Structure prediction request, 305 residues.
Amino acid sequence: MTEYAASFMANGKGMLVLDDYAAASVTAPPWPGLSFERYSELIMRSTRLSPYLSTVIVSRDTVLAGAARPHKIGLGVRMTLPAGRAPGDLRGRLATMASHGVTLAEWRANLPLAKIPRGGVHTDAATLAEGAAASLAEGITPLLTVAMPDLESHSQGVTHAATANALTAVSAALASAGIDPAAALLRVNMIVPGSTNPTQPDPIDVAQSTVAVLSESIDPALGGVVLLSGGQHIDQACQNLRAIAQVAHDRSSPWPITFGFTRATVMASLDVPEAKDEQAVHGALVDACERAFESASGSATCAAP
Prediction:
């Protein structure tokens, strides 16, 4: 399983996550006529994304509906822990996903803001560890997503502290569950302030803060780090990603880094000229993924030999 995890991070290729953020972006104006199902189909049938992506991650319903497999790209699935599940239910769901060709399972367990105690952790680390263990038992690589709550005006320091606390808790939960960190991947936010905070750091500051948090909070043996765009425009997300990859390389960081953008790439694909059509959308998406790949490609040298 450690080799499987490493294969997702090879050559700086990234991941595209077709989640609720992607669906909301596609179906919002000025694209009321483009359904999310049709948008997803364009991606799954694309022959131009494989140089830049290792995996496309979709919903369980999409997998069960028998959607086309992405061209020369791995198929991932977004998973949640069902309430009131019986022992074995979770592994049964994952076994079904494996039978449909799924090789990676993304897990999220962010707590609602109202349920986060003051100074507490915003991620249910035990749930992520349970999902990781069940995935590995079925031969599926786990991708654990830890996303900073969108508080809009919060400072970079708040992001740093909250993310470090969450990652420390996740690392401890994985260790407690006896999970080999080299067989798991982490998807996490960059250390940036909220979008409405008046102080927005430059890419080098973002890079130094992000690498510092990762270094102090995650196991050196972790299989790899996949960075969220966190609502950033593709230009800013790529600038920050490039700087993070460079700082990680300069510091000989032990884990490879790549991108797992959603909104940055999806919004870029919809930002096309007046004569809008599906080919233009597809072409703009390919361009956005290529830009992200080029920004992250230097991070492949960060991987441990």
Q: What stands out?
A: The chain has one domain: 2-302. The beta strands are 14-17, 53-58, 74-79, 102-108, 141-146, 185-188, 225-227, 257-259.
